[in-house]
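BUG: 3D viewer hangs when loading the predicted structure for this chain

Environment: internal workstation, default settings.
Expected: structure renders.
Actual: progress bar stalls at 90%.

Input used:
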Amino acid sequence: MRETQNIEYKTIWKDEYLKWICGFANAQGGIIYIGKDDDGNVVGVNDAKKMLEELPNKITTTLGIVADVNLYCEESKEYIEIIVESQPNPVNYKGEYHYRSGSTKQELKGSALDKFLLEKQGKHWDSVPIMNVKIEELKSETFDFYRKKGIKSNRLNDDVLTDSNEILLNNLKLTDGEYLKRAAILLFHPDPERYITNAYIKIGYFESDSDLVFQDEIHGNLIEQVEKTMDLLFTKYIKAIISYDGIYRTETFEYPKEAIREALLNAVAHKDYTGVTPIQISVYKDKIMIWNFGELPENWTIDTLQKKHSSIPYNPDVSNGFFRIGYIEAWGRGISKMNEQCASAGLPMPLYYYESSGFWVVFRKDIYYEEYLQSKGLNSRQIKAIIYVKKKGRITNREYQEINETSRRTALRDIDELCGMNIFYKKGQFKSSYYTL
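Structure tokens produced before the viewer hung:
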């Protein structure tokens, strides 16, 4: 058996391996074998009995924990097994905090260490109190707006209209004794950047990745940022198609408003505010890209998000504040809602990916019309197939051949080009395979 998340092999013992034990103790626990190679084969160690006596004391003296140390023999070769349990409290090696991640060990520093220590105490970053900020410094207009939204969403009762701001904050669990939590500052302070660096949003319109045409910055508390950003996006950055039903004028935006709002709210609520960069929204002719610094919950992937999943907020107090006024749900349905809204609008599914230390959501326009596809250099067969998939939802190689009256080889070559351009996505295997947009 090769090394895994919970198994480490060492051919000899070195005292620096106490760092690996520290890493296991701070993570999910694990086992270290002394006297095995990287493939798990027993190579044996000298003085195994001496190690059996000394290692428990070294571990306890240096790390302050107790680990099971066992001696085994295989084919006349002795080796040591050290079983490390996950510890409820932080464990350090001479002032250093190590953590097992995957099959590697890393030393925690800076914001990663802060987060780790808080989690071991059952706290989150946004629940940490900030000294020397009074309730009177928070923005009264935001409290008024919050009360109205909360009542309208049926998640706050009418009593909040007469409750003081202090009572409201206490009921929202945004205070810690006499202090305000970071979440309270983010949600209600007129200038949260005084205490939390880069807690704002940047929007830019790009002709290309290197050609920025114009940009805006949105400051203020998170509630103001959400409202101002949505207003700015749909008045300055996103076009509306005008039509008339009799004498009544109708505006249809290029992207579903609720899907954009959902992505924005997720970015604001789940951002890691220990980072040094603001939320970034990049608008292009054919897409909108929303990025926030942060990470997925442990052991989650993009596939996890696409399935039904529980809600694990990165900033629980901020998320609860948003939930109480109907900004977000508590069931982890954000991704599903965005997918459904784009499908209803006849748009491609949003793209989701984790890259550059953050999470991206990309909304794409309906680019599947003949004039645009011709500008991309696609041939008439490919364009016909794309429009077919837009109507039918999928296409097989055989269907491609039939609608274009072409050979299997030509169809395969055309389809491979479309897959290489990220227009077609292959699903299934062999004879059951098909392609979607």
